[in-house]
Design goal:
Structural class: alpha/beta
Radius of gyration: 18 Å
């Protein structure tokens, strides 16, 4: 292991010790919210991180902030050519890839009658097609990278529990859950040392809340959402980041094709 790390240009000291020591990770949508929190936590636990986002400046700021050999990549996750470019850049910079976190996504509030076909397709492109493209494009590199690998796809509790005004979002996030299981079974059948799981957060205190508030009282919205959660609060980015950390680590070595709900008990009702 030490020899492999030295070949990639980093010593054990530079990479650091931790639950992801020596791992090479890509986190999409890493410029803010859940992606940023996950990138920071991964770096703290010894991973070398590639932060990708359509927001180039934001991704660069996160990579600079966490340091430890992190890189930033401009990335429209709906474009196959950009996925191919990003994976190629990571191979050149890191020499391999152990962990893929498909985190990039958007929210959408609209009933099935209110949704236009254009909106429907856009939500599915960002929230679902990107996960397909990420798994498809990254798997060959992950399969030939030394060590075990893990894919963590960020779905939503809305992919398990539907809402009357979230038609496209419910559909896309539910599909991510099942796609993750298909990828898990594919990797197992191919003999790849790669696991694939999905996480399902409820309302989180991220910039998506701003969009849900429609310019209104953000704190009032948070209080309203918190009343729907048995634990009495909405989630924090670190709540999701720690769950992703576990699933990405070798601690979860016998967990694949599973979903982890991070919902404060909503789905228990």
């Amino acid at each position: 292991m030490a020899h492999a790390q030295q070949k990639r240009g980093l010593s054990l000291t530079q990479i650091g010790e931790g639950r992801l020591a020596g791992k090479l990770a890509l986190i999409t949508g890493g410029a803010s919210g859940l992606g940023k929190a996950t990138a920071e936590l991964f770096a703290e636990h010894g991973a070398r991180v590639a932060v990708s986002d359509i927001n180039s400046a934001g991704a660069a700021a996160v990579a600079e902030e966490i340091g430890r050999g992190a890189i930033a990549l401009t990335h429209d996750v709906t474009e196959e050519a950009q996925w191919q470019s990003v994976v190629s850049e990571i191979e050149q910079a890191f020499g391999g890839l152990n962990i893929l976190v498909n985190n990039a996504g958007i929210g959408a509030l609209a009933t099935v009658e209110e949704s236009s076909l254009e909106e429907w397709r856009h939500v599915h492109a960002v929230d679902l097609d990107s996960v397909f493209l990420g798994c498809k494009t990254a798997l060959p590199l992950m399969a030939r990278t030394e060590g075990t690998g893990a894919i963590v796809n960020v779905s939503s509790i809305a992919g398990i529990i539907a809402g009357h005004n979230m038609a496209a979002y419910n559909s896309a996030k539910a599909a991510v859950r099942h796609l993750s299981k298909s990828v898990a079974l594919h990797c197992a059948r191919q003999g790849y040392p790669i696991r694939c799981n999905s996480v399902h957060p409820t309302f989180m205190d991220t910039p998506i809340i701003d969009g849900m508030a429609f310019g209104g009282d953000r704190e009032a919205l948070i209080e309203k959402l918190a009343r729907q959660v048995p634990l009495g609060r909405i989630g924090r980015p670190e709540d999701v980041a720690y769950a992703v950390l576990y699933l990405a680590s070798d601690e979860a070595g016998f967990i694949t094709g599973a979903e982890l709900k991070i919902d404060g008990g909503i789905s228990a009702w």
